Amino acid sequence: MMVQETIVWKGYLACVGEDSCVVQSPWILEEDCVFGADSDHTTLAVAAIQLMQNNGCQLNSINSLQDVDAQIITMTTGVEVIQPLEDDSIELSADWDLCIGDDARVVICKNDSDIELWEPVGTIEVDADFHQEITSAWQRECEPNHVSQGAYVSQQQYEEGAAARLNLSGQSIDGKMIWPPRQMSDNGVLAPQASTPLQRVATVESWTKLAAAGAPSEFSFRAPILGGITTVFVRFEQGPRGVFLLVDDEDNDPQIGDQVQFVTRRIYAQEAFVRYGLKCQIVKQ
Amino acid sequence: MPNTTRRVMVDVAVIGAGQTKYGNHPLGLKAMWAEAAAKAFDSVDNNFEAKLVDEAFIGSVAFGGAQLGNTAAILTEHSGMKGCSVRRVENACASSGFALRDAMMAIKSGEADIVVAGGIEKMNDLSAERKRYWLGVSGDTEWERLAGLTFPGTYALMARRHFHEYGSNHDDLVNISVKNHMHGFENEVAHLRKEVSFEKAASGFMVADPLTLYDCCPTSDGASCVILAADHVVREFTDDPIWLKGSGAGSDHLALHDRSSITQMSATQKAVAQAYKSSGLGANDIDLAEVHDCFTIAELMATEDLGFANRGEGGIFAREGRGRRNEGDVAINPSGGLKSKGHPLGATGTGQAVEVFKQLKGIVEAPRQIRDAEVGMTHNVGGSGATCAVHIFGRDR
User: Is B84 known to be catalytic?
Assistant: First the structure.
């Protein structure tokens, strides 16, 4: 049974029941639900799984079609994503299904359960030109021949640090939390594997908004459309600090001392490979 | 030939120094380097020949990849030094500051008597898009760049935090910009030779909030070259050497988030402590300092880290004009600094040494000459502070 109340979750709109949830983008264009500036089905799926987990649901694995990045979902949530292969050699054996359609909406439900229609409250009409421009920018960015002309994070390098990036896994060294992970301690001792997650709340210690011309080239297609990009320098309660982009849908300037939470979003793409990561949302008091 | 017997306590002098004009340079890498080297050779008072050079250390980030490998070999080939021991030194914007330190150490080791330290960068022959990819390659690529940061962004984070912790403000940065443009206006080799009013500098368009266009150095082409000599051969070349009295270098975490503070640079603090100790001098002894002002906040923080201002008072130092040429406590960036003279990455460190060499020799264009200059400093930072080299020069040995 799904409660029809709309909640705001990770920057999306959602409703949740005992064995199902729907998560969708808040953006509407001519009655269609469309993605925001840095979202896709993978980021919506991550948010949906996290919503179920937040409500106490024991989700170990989930069936899904191949329209989402299973590796990103698993690294972020710990949930195994079972996707069919073309030869049908993998059985969709999980008790839960991740359902996605043509619009910016995902559903998680138990196998064969019925989903009630839900009318979300709080949708926002997106500017059609903006939506067209940002969608087109992502299409260009995701093309295989869109390659770096200089600084570069290879797919291998990204994947090496992805777990720490997506689930904030840190290291405990001499009683001190370290994040992002290091190879050795300051005393030259090999550091343990990153396995201690940081709390997903932090405080802004500094921030900047880069004009489109000041942003790295990785963002050069989208930064002009977004009017620049905002980066926050934050301190986690356990001590480590980090830099994160503010979610692209956030239009408020942060302030030093603001609390932020973390959501999974697209960062940028090169060579048809999307780099996902955590971005910050200011916690409204 | 050098005396290869291990020699300790060798003193090192600068006997020559030269550089190209900085800016959007019409020459390519080989021609720029040849021009800088030729000017350095010509600046030596007596009897210098390129073939006398035992070792050469050439700093370059190799911006854009025009000659990523064997940069030093092709440059020395085109400047009469073919055959000597050469290598490229890469430590981002501090590349030639470290080249200078390596050159000094080569002489102090007893393995070389005449050593060239230099630097070069060609940045303006790239398309705008390719240039944007290369700007910021020396920052933390995996974490900072994926968070949208290149150097304007990292220095903006430092600036806003400094404002928050110490009450400094953007007007303090504007004062630094105005001063450095005033200093660089009469510098014949400066990239941006124009004076800027406080009002204009305060109203530049925002690059990385709170830093505006007038807080940022330009993207420059240029080459610079200094010639060092061991004490026992100095008199063959000049009766008026400039002594390299102290040197220090340090490093720090590459990424800001790993550092204990983002309002000071521990690499600078380590480097300058070594330089003061090895020279027996202190901040009060410095008459002029070429400081790494890639962004105005970098100069503000450096005046504190180098000991010219108390911790947290870099803004007051700037506000009171204590770094102005022939007016303040110490002339900060009499060349115009990176802000006005320009910043050809790999060439900047030894370019600072060229300025100090000329100031201490008393051969700078009249309006820019620091009166009674006896001791000068160079401060060269790599990236957002991961590396730093500091050198102290003096007229007395």
Answer: no
Interface mutation target, options A147, A210, A247, chain B, most CBs of B under 10 Å: A210
The pLDDT value given to residue B40: 98
Chain B residues within an 8 Å CB radius of A243: 143-144, 147, 149, 157, 255-257
Q: How far is CA A222 from CA A139, A140, A254, in A?
A: 11, 10, 21
A122-135 pLDDT, tens digit each? 999 999 999 999 99
Cβ distance A214 to B150 less than 8 Å, yes or no, reads: yes
Residue contact B257–A215, C-beta within 8 A: no
B253 is catalytic: no
Fold exhibited by the domain B12-127+219-234:
Peroxisomal Thiolase; Chain A, domain 1 (3.40.47)
Q: What is the arithmetic mean of pLDDT over B240-264? A: 97
In chain A, whose CA is at the least distance from the CA of B207? Answer: A211
Distance CA A258, CA A140 (A): 35
pLDDT in tens, A93-115: 889 999 998 999 999 999 878 77
Answer yes or no: are the C-beta atoms of B331 and B360 closer than 8 Å: no
Catalytic residue among B84, B93, B217, B294, which? Answer: B93
Q: Residue B7: what pLDDT?
A: 45
| B226, containing H or E segment | strand B222-230
| pLDDT band, residue A89 (cuts 50/70/90) | low
Closest approach of A156 to chain B, Cα-based (Å) = 11
Strand partners, B23: B221
Question: Which residues in chain B touch residue A209, judged by CB atoms under 8 angstroms apart?
Answer: 206, 208-209
Give me B143's structure tokens: 């974490």
Q: What is the mean pLDDT of residues B323-339?
A: 96
User: How do the domains of chain B map onto residue ranges?
Assistant: 12-127+219-234
pLDDT confidence of residue B136? 82
DSSP sequence for B231-260: HHHHTTT-SS-EEEEEEEEEE--SSGGGSS
Instruction: Give the list of residues 6+ apart from residue B81 with CB closer than 8 angstroms, or none.
Output: B37, B50, B51, B53, B56, B116
**Locus of tokens 């928050």:** B164
Given an 8 Å threshold on Cβ–Cβ distance, is B133 in contact with A229? Answer: no
Please give the structure tokens belonging to residue B263.
């309002």
Nearest residue in chain A measured CA to CA from B143? A243
Q: What is the mean pLDDT of chain B?
A: 95
Contact A243 B257 (CB under 8 A): yes
The proportion of chain A whose per-residue pLDDT surpasses 70, expressed as a percent, equals 98
Q: Among the options B181, B183, B292, B343, which is catalytic?
A: B343
> Considering the entire predicted model, what is its pTM?
0.95
